[in-house]
Amino acid sequence: MRKSAFLGRTTDAKARAVTRPAAGVKVVASTEQEHAVLPRRAALSLVAGIAAVAGRVAPSQAAYGESANVFGRISNESGFLPYAGDGYSLLIPSKWNPSKERAFPGVDLCYEDNFDAVSNLNIVVNKTSKSSIKDFGSPEQAFKEVAASLLGEQTFSGKTVSEGGFAPDRVSAASILDVGSKSVNGKEYYLWDVLTRTADGDEGGRHQLFSATVSNGKLYVLKVQSGDKRWFKGQEGQVRKVRDTFTVA
Fold first, then answer.
1. Backbone angles phi and psi of 228, in degrees to 5
2. 61: exposed, middle or buried (C-beta count within 10 Å: 0-12, 13-18, 19+)?
């Protein structure tokens, strides 16, 4: 996506009277008139030059929020860009940017929304002795071992009463809203939809979508997160598409 700067120019709409010289009379522009014309021409040339330069933005100079197109003219009108990692692929929102944040062991990829880092995705890859995600048990049984650690841990330590839906001495809570599974090219995936909340009401909660599978002795887990406010403003469809397109070879 290219950004363009538009230069406005106001023109005088009033009609100007033009007096034609008599036949045979030679009209010579005065020095002041020549000086008045030349600056206007120079200004127009400068504007044209700026427009030409603005139209030639190199990929390495892409604006913040735009992914540099290093593979040529590949466009995705749906607002997503294809990404191929080590043994996996998915679509990433075009206005999300790579992040160096490594919040969990085994993080292979991290992207975040350039508008709000609360919206982000992580792909975690770790070795496993399992040959299939089913070897962890049912989706309900597997959640604790496969995905629960990616919800983070409570850092608060102190005494609180049980109120607002939080257990005693707890200022955070997680609720599994949906559990499922799917098969893609003969490979089984487990899916979890989780809503996490904190006592300070930050973002009204955070939606966490998980997809996990096993391939070639590795456990692949995708976690996509969206703040509750943005989720209900339309981001739900965006993060669900990220999860739906996550596939492992």
1. -55, -40
2. exposed
Quick check: 112 and 97 in contact, CB under 8 A? yes
b/e string for 124-152 if b means 16 or more Cβ within 10 A?
bbeebebeebeebeebeebbeebbeebbe
What's the CA gap between 78 and 56, in Å, rounded?
Answer: 24
Residue with token string 């593979």: 71
Q: Taking the model in full, what pTM does it have?
A: 0.64
How far apart, in whole angstroms, are the C-alpha atoms of residue 127 and residue 99? 23
Is 220 in contact with 212 (CB distance < 8 Å)? yes
Alpha helices in 169-249 (DSSP H): 228-230, 236-244
Rounded CA separation 84/92 (Å): 10
pLDDT tens-place string over residues 3-34: 433 333 333 433 343 444 444 444 344 444 44
